[in-house]
Input
Amino acid sequence: MDTLLRVSKGYGNQVKYALILPAFFFFFIFVYHPFSFRDYMTVGGKTWTFHLLMLCSIMMGVLALTRLLFSVLYKYVPFKWWQYVLWCFGEVLVTSFFFALYVSLFYLKDGGMPYFTALPYTFEITLMTLIYPYIISIAARIITNKSSDLENVVKEPEESLIKFYDQHKRLKLTIDPSAVLYVAADENYIKINYLQNDKVRVYQLRNSMKSFEADAEKHGFTRCHRSYYVNPRHVKLLSRGKDGIIYAEFILEGVSRIPVSRQYYQKLSDML
Output
């Protein structure tokens, strides 16, 4: 499994979870009646189907908020798979908290039920029901990512790679463009800053920035300074320093920020 989670950015891709998971929860409980749900939730003068619909509505609201937060964080934080699994578990936990609050309030009419008495039940029913769609969605995402990787390897693998040559036209480095953070000029050399096994590496070769222009445009890089080409996919945000200079800050921690010239600022900003 890849170390980093890869999903489409944007809330639209995440809001579907706020619809699919409550729908699954409703039909699973409605059909199978697990955990004595029908007997447990016939309280407060309401039917168990009323309570089921209310719980689904609560779940929908919780997931709409948690997935909104996730979509915002995902733009700036490189989530790993284990972190995403913890996020899903956190959604179950938060949903259980609200379910327990709902149950305890309704049981007040029938003699009362303490919040922390209801919580174990709501946590059990939420976890044991939602574990199925969570596992299916995670497995589907893994398969999708693997299929995408395989297609990229099969379809013109050589054309999809960046090739760096020295001033004598000798091939020195071949690399996946998505692994490159930025390329910097250093007098008569260029320095390729790239990721390898989640660590930043630097490869230096003797050549000019002009030699990289054609490949930069082809592979989605953009110039941000006369001495820098940057890969927008790794840029978190643009910020102005105390010195008044605009800098590109990277998603990955530990990568030094690089300057952005005013003439290139708008183009790079539009690409983020």
Notes: The first strand starts at residue 162 and ends at 165.
